[in-house]
Amino acid sequence: MGKRLITQRRGKGGPHYRSPSHRHVDDVRLPSFDEGTGTIKDLIQAPGRTSPLAVIDFGGVTDYQLAAAGMKVGQKIQVGGDRIAPGCITMLSRIPEGTAIHNIESKPGDGGKYAKTAGSSATVVTRGERVMVLMPSGAMKDFNPSCRAAVGVVAGGGRGDKPLAKAGKNYLTLRSRSTANKKVSGVAMNAVDHPHGGGSHPHVGGPNCQKRTASPGQKVGFLPKKKRK
C-alpha cells in the first residue's frame, strides 16, 4: 500500500499542515451592526495576511478591518450611510458605479468573502435588482443589493515589488499561511507515493498509445496489442 497524497494529508490537518492560528490577529469580518462611526487608532501588520490591518475604535469596541490605501490614524470610519471614503462600509446599493470596493459579502451579513488580498479591488458596474461587480479576476458577478462592502483598494499593493531573495524568507512567509513552499510533481515520485510515479516513462495523463487503424502519421509511440486469433 502506498502513502496518502500530500493534498490528502494537508486536508486532514496535523501539526505539519496546521496554520499557526496563535499568531493570527483576527478573522477580519465586517462589523455586525448596521450603522456606526469609528476612529482608526493604529495600522498594524498581521502575520498570515498580505495586507495590513486597521485597528478601529467603535465607541469602546475594538474592531479589525483590512486597511485600504489612503487610510491614516485618526481618520473616521463610517458603517452604513452614504459616505464614500477609503475604509467606509456600506451596502452595495448605496455605492456609486465605478467605485473601487473590497471585502465584499457573498450573502448579506456573512462578513465579507471577496477581494481581500493586498492591492486587490473590485468595481461596481451597475445597480438595480442585482448589483453587477467587476471582480479582480475580470469576471462579472452579481450580488444582492443588501450585501455590504468596504470602499477603496486594499493596502499593500506593492508587496510583489520586493523580491524574497532567498528560500528561507519564502519558507517563513508561506509558513504563516500554512502553505507548503516546495512542490514535487507526481511523475518524479515513486509508485508507492503517487499514482503518477514509477515506471520507465512519465505518466502523460491518459492513454499514450495509438489505435492500429490510425493514419501512418499518427502511429507514433506505443501501439495496442494485436488481437489473438
Structure in words:
This protein is mainly beta. Helix content is 7%, strand content 21%. It contains two helices and ten strands; from the N terminus they run αββββββββββα. The protein has helices at 6-12, 167-175; strands spanning 36-44, 53-58, 61-66, 76-79, 89-91, 100-102, 122-126, 131-134, 140-143, 148-151. It has a six-stranded antiparallel beta sheet with strand order 5-10-6-7-8-9, with no helix packed on it. A four-stranded antiparallel beta sheet has the order 3-2-1-4, with no helix packed on it. A hairpin with a 4-residue loop joins β7 and β8. The longest helix is centred in the C-terminal third of the chain and has 9 residues, at 167-175. The mean pLDDT is 89.
Rg from alpha-carbon coordinates: 25 Å
**Which shape, going by the Cα principal axes?**
elongated
Low-confidence parts: none
The total of helices stands at 2
Main sheet strand line-up: 5-10-6-7-8-9
Strand content: 15-25%
Please estimate the helix content: under 10%
Sheet with most strands? 6 strands, antiparallel
Number of strands: 10
Beginning-to-end CA distance, first to last residue: 37 Å
H/E series: HEEEEEEEEEEH
Structural class: mainly beta
